[in-house]
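Demo today. Your pick:
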Amino acid sequence: MIRKFRCRQYENPARKDPVASHLRRLRRALLSTLVTASLAGPLSGAARPAAVPAPTPAALPPFRAATPAALAERYAASRDGIRAAERMAAGHGDHWRAAMLRAMADPARQFLSFDGRDGGRAVEVFGDLSGAERIVVLVPGSDTNLDKYGLLRGGSMRLRQALGDRSVVIAWLGYATPSTVSLEALTTGRAVQAAPDLQAFVRELTAAKPAARISVVCHSYGSVVCGQAAYGLDVTDILLCGSPGVGADNVAALDTRATVWAGRSSGDWVADVPHTRLPFAGVGFGTDPVSPEFGARVFEAGDGGHSDYLRPGVALENIARIVARRA
């Protein structure tokens, strides 16, 4: 029998230190991000979504009623804003954006709000909000903007279909998402700015639909937003999908009465993100949400990739089960 021996006297002590290991991984992630950004920036700068001008939207009153009449009025007002943005995009020569906005202005679409500036904000309703018993607010992650809105819409429609009747999904693109290849995607800065707006929206939704059960499904950087907003969200469940961390060490630190769930597909690259935090630099998101140390209820998410949680498969099925209380 051959035995393997280790020469302990030559072992690097730093390898035993988990903090040093995390710092090394974080440095590699930062370097990778900077290199990617330096290469992608010159190529994509001219096509940035924020470069397309859009008018300042008309001020809308707080969303307080979910009656058919009130909703129809709200949807019509948002549609006017989308059409104004379409005209400005066409005048600017951006025919791609104009065509996309023309599709968004279809009378069959239902937007509670819209702002075409700085990459775009949009809050779209899938289903009959006036009669909803279950409501899911879907919070997207980095690189979600008007030019890539179709991905968010498709996921929202599939989740709505999986949930069935008397359920509504609301795609909440209510913040300026960071670029995946940016240092902002490694910090909580954008999430801290977005959290009060998400809290305010859920408060309005709760006031308009007090009998409905509300959950938030948070993907990727959107889970960082939900983590920063959690203490002020009156919701039943918070689902973290493909999360790099939420800026908190554990569920208790979120200070929420909601049940917190976490799922990660086996093919999701976010598993390689260093799960650490450097408070003095504002970098990193803390404990891995699917780890026992974090304390979330972990659900099976299949073998898809980072953008596959709302595609047909195990992850979508389990998210629907949790939201519908069939888990």
